[in-house]
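Please describe what follows:
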Amino acid sequence: MPRFTRIAAESLEPFSLYRHENGAYYVGLFDRVRTQVLRRSLGTSDLVAALERVVAIKQLGGEAFLAARADLLSRPLQIFSRRAEHGRCVLDVDETGCFHIGLVDPASGEVTRRSLETTDFFLATDRLSVVVNSGISDDLDAALALDTPLSTIRQLLAWHRTYASTLTSHDQEGIAISAILATSIADRRIATLTRADFEGIADQWRADGLAVGTVSRRLSTLRSALNRAAEIRRLPCIPPKVPEFRTRQAIRSAPPLAVPIDIDGFAALWDAVEEEHLRLYLALLLATAARPEAIFDLTGTSFDLDWGLVGLNPPGRLQTNKWRPTLPIIPGLAPWVRHFPKGPLLVWHGRPVRSVRTALRHAIARAGLPPGYASYSIRHGLGRHMRRHRVPTEEISLYLGHVRPPDNPLTTLVYSPWEADYLSNAVDAVQAFWDAASAKSRTGLAPGPLDLAYLEFLRNREGNA
């Protein structure tokens, strides 16, 4: 409870002058009905100024004096006790148990408070952390207007779900989010989670018959949400580390995401495609060996024919562990690139495409390929093809985005996209796959009349926008 010292001064009656323990002065008036002293701040820690203000109040005559007296008596006094301090920011609780955040004036010691509208100490300290980390030192209202912290796993995943819905893997992300919210940690505060909590839900999932790979994928969704929230300072604490339960040996020995496709298989798939946007999708996959989500992000401006390069990582997007490299444009893709629009390349019914799963599944069936083939089949097939062509391991890893370019200045130039021989062995191997598949295909892999019409439609659409 705050401590006040009464400074006796008979000339001030019926008012009294009080000094708070922080040095600020208050005017007080005894309420005979409530049998308590009601105090109001004088906004100063200077004794002379405080006395002058109380004298001014006492000397008010008639209605003005009664109004000043009534003001003190009409409003119940809020008594605060201090619970936490972070520099000038403080956390106080009133007599009802409601928490308030305060900003201390270093000159007068006065505290400007705003209610946090909660009686939960942990939620209140989370809000205090957000205000302190915001760097806003003089405007409590602006600091409190910031996004509220994501204190629990449920709040975190509700926020993350919007982002997850934009991913190519949105179905799997949604399943993982629902599975995590069905566990015992759903309503736990993030700051209290430990490795034992993650091990507990992993053990439960394995007991339910899930493979370790499925457990790992679900937890990777939680790991991604925590990392994203931490990057933009939406967490009130340091994010807990979500462990990886697959061993390195298990990761290395895990089966590929899809059956690797060979030259004959790709030629058959190409001939079975009926949609122009799907044919372009396959051409981009074959030329870059990229992950599907990188293909969906490509636009015409991703390609630089002057330098003969394609950047798989869009401007402004942060690189992740799944590195998106800058690659040479293989000769087979160049005739396509010359007709690209500036904007999105994969469009269906006027909207950018984020998934081709259904169209690709039908094309695979028409091609007579057995189950197990998918978009990743091309990436895995090219990886095997490059190994058979004795492409150096470093080039394969860089081309597939398994590693980022070396940071060592002695080796960076060797792997620079602007070097004449940049990934030349990998490019030769991919082009050889392209040429062989084109020779086996009925139509070849060059853009046909329908493909050119599709690209012209996209260019005209941009011109009319």
In short: Confidence is low (pLDDT under 50) at residues 61-66, 408-414. DSSP finds 19 helices and 13 strands in the chain. The domain at 263-464 is CATH 1.10.443.10 (hpI Integrase; Chain A). The radius of gyration is 34 Å.
